[in-house]
Amino acid sequence: PHGLGHNLGLDTHDVGGYPVGTVRATRPGLRSLRNVRELAAGMVLTVEPGCYFIESEINRALGDKTKAKFMHADKARSMIGKGGVRLED
User: Smallest Cα–Cα separation from 52: which of 3, 86, 29?
Assistant: First the structure.
């Protein structure tokens, strides 16, 4: 799982994604968002695609027949604990 990265501004990792008064989401899939700010013309965000081998997500997918049919179970399980890769170009 991945999404938009962070704002780019005067500092490479601009921390402006959570303005005063905003609340960080707690729902799975949203709680790791780095930005809840309403975007305006001229704002720039990074997009950081990645592939992560998260044990709970691999197990959930393997337990779902509609997803498991697209996976090689032994290979997927062998990647658990190896982390992943993220592109930041």
Answer: 86
Query: Which helix (DSSP H) or strand (DSSP E) does residue 9 occupy?
Result: none
pTM: 0.54
SS3 of residue 62 by DSSP:
helix
* Cβ neighbours of residue 62 closer than 8 Å, sequence gap 6 or more: 68, 71, 73, 76, 77
Whether 1 and 57 have beta carbons less than 8 Å apart is answered as yes
**Residue 11 has what DSSP assignment?**
S
pLDDT tens figures, 34-86: 777 788 898 888 777 788 899 999 999 999 999 999 999 999 999 999 988 87
Place of tokens 């402006």: 16
Q: Which two tokens stand for residue 28?
A: 């799975």
